[in-house]
Amino acid sequence: MKGAKGKGATKRDALKPVDDKKVGKKKAVGKGKAKGGKAEKDPNKPKRPPSAFFVFLEEFRVTFKKENPNIKAVSAVGKAGGEKWKSMSASEKAPFEAKAAKRKSEYEKQMNAYNNKQDDDADEESDKSKSEVDEESGQENADVDDDEDDDEDDD
DNA sequence: GCCATGATTGTTTCC
DNA sequence: GGAAACAATCATGGC
């Protein structure tokens, strides 16, 4: 029953029209595969930060695999994760949203550096002699206190 | 052998 | 403002 999303009612639901599966798009270009040949965008461009749902999914995958070592299909994890996500209360989602917010902050910084580099890159065209090492040091680690606040450990 | 797909929701980005 | 693309994951199938 792929129509499971009946409950969704999210925007994607509205655009799910044709498609059969993922709106006809999905990772076609994702993962930087750039299969089509075009796309290609910018390999240096920072990837989007995972949303609260994705942060939750990361942990959920581990739990799911433990309980279902036989099930390795990502679709199964996605479905189960989606259902549980909806069943979770705001309080339970809070820690995941906090992590997502933190990653988003880092993403913004990376985007800032990326945009800065883009502008610099344009200038570099006239002065391509210099190497782009400074941007590398620009992003450095950005690790900050990292996550590690999984105090929710249910069970 | 390698890339796309499958499913989920949220966020971001572009027009 | 809305619509579309993309973020992770991994086994599997198709070319």
TrEMBL record:
Residues 133-155 have a biased composition (Acidic residues). One of its GO terms (biological process) is chromatin organization. It is found in: Nucleus. Residues 46-115 bind DNA. Keywords: DNA-binding, Nucleus. The keyword DNA-binding applies. CDD domains: HMG-box_AtHMGB1-like (cd22005). SUPFAM superfamilies: HMG-box. The keyword DNA-binding applies. Residues 10-22, 94-109 have a biased composition (Basic and acidic residues). Residues 1-50, 78-155 are annotated as: Disordered. GO terms for cellular component: chromatin; nucleus. Residues 23-36 have a biased composition (Basic residues). GO terms for molecular function: chromatin binding; DNA binding; structural constituent of chromatin. InterPro entries: HMG_box_dom, HMG_box_dom_sf, HMGB_plant. Pfam families: HMG_box (PF00505). Residues 46-115 form the HMG box domain. Signal peptide: none annotated. Belongs to the HMGB family. This is HMG box domain-containing protein. It comes from Lactuca sativa (Garden lettuce).
